[in-house]
Queue: 2 jobs
Job 1
Amino acid sequence: MPCVCLNTYVKAVGAGAVAALPTDTVWGLAAAPAHSSRLYALKQRSLDKSLILMGANAAALWSYVMVDAAQWQTITDSHWPGQLTLVVPASPQVPLAMHPHTPDTIGVRVPAHPVARQVLALTGPLATTSANLSGQATLTSIEQVFEQFPNVYGLDNSAIRALLGQATGHKIRMPVPSGLPSTVARWQSNNWEVLRQGTVYL
């Protein structure tokens, strides 16, 4: 699928299409939560591995989680946007297709990437996963994403310029994903338990 303008990209995601999404960690694949099954099929991903719900900010994700408001605000104010995924009790608003084997919890994150956050502000929270076939190396460029997943939607240069607030004609300097995994922490026994240590330390 060729790169498209922002309006077409957002409409396609809303209609259930899978899109390439740059984040602060890796290139991702994203879909509306109700269409999460398409991500599993595209990646050949096992259903026992949940997807991550990304939002433009903590407030956008609040209705999808069931945690103490004070604890939620304390950790999200400190570490979001950023490379921290929180595994928390899920509200009924999370479609079962996102976490078929772990229906009680969901991983959520606000990425520190200007394009991703502005896209998420337009689409609402999206189900996401790294852009690679399950078990294979992560992809480091949009060209690699399109080579492996030719039917996903991507943003064209004009869309990226607009999202980055750059005037037409300027060289595009979209932040490059770090390639490093996010820290993953789970709410457990009234505390945060680190499941995977990444760049964020709690």
Job 2
Amino acid sequence: MTSPRKILVVEDDPDISSLVELHLVDAGNEVELQGHGGTGLDRALNQPFDLVILDIMLPGVDGLEICRRLRTEKPELPILMLTARTTELDRVLGLEMGADDYLTKPFSVRELVARVKAIFRRIEVFDSQPQPAIMALGPIEIDTDSRRVVIDGEPVELTAREFDLLAFFARHPGRVFTRGQLLDKVWGYTHEGYEHTVNTHINRLRGKLESDPSHPRFILTVWGVGYRFPTIEELTT
């Protein structure tokens, strides 16, 4: 029997946090609630959690700053961000700060639980699949054991979702994927209206991988379709 996953919920609305806790515990998880941004950040930095569910509007330290700090100090810790429906800018900023996923308020608790399950399922599938420890693809080297990426001899720091997205592309060189397919394969769900999540992670990856993100070498756009990783021949010529 596997140990329950530990989830930190940082949300200052007691009605929302209690409802989220109830359903996540029913799903077999351990849940800790924090209603203050400063305390939530301290707990996330100093305690072992498998996931942080993070509201943006918090007293003390806001969710965007917490996300930024966690991405600097715990890049592999998954973050699911909660945003107000009317604040498109907050959703974009959350993803650009490194959030793995987001839900807009008011949200379905059932959808939240499904997203959490998808995050944990993705981690379990990734850990259980046999795959080469190191993928050497031209100038880029991807170590799936240590989850490290090196380009032209220089290490590149990626978040957990950025690494999973890059590793997925690298395992399928030359194949074109739509944003919907990437949501399904890397995020573990397909939900209309969340394709922007893919776009933002692609842009973040390019910003970290490419010397010139406007002319990418690794994550290529196929206009009108989606994205692909180059073939070995393309990378070595």
